[in-house]
């Protein structure tokens, strides 16, 4: 999963607060940027099949 909003990868060392950007580099220090949020789920989710089946059942009701 990829997010459009990115954060400076070196913000803890170089900035007082996180610096967000849409580009591949930080606008303030030039460091690379990284995805600002983790993926909302694990792609190898062992219970994903059951969660999706339950969601379908609830939608049918």
TrEMBL record:
Residues 22-61 are annotated as: Disordered. The lineage of its organism: Archaea, Methanobacteriati, Methanobacteriota, Stenosarchaea group, Halobacteria. This is Ribosome biogenesis protein Nop10. Belongs to the NOP10 family. One of its GO terms (molecular function) is snoRNA binding. GO terms for biological process: pseudouridine synthesis; rRNA processing. It holds the Pfam family Nop10p. GO terms for cellular component: ribonucleoprotein complex.
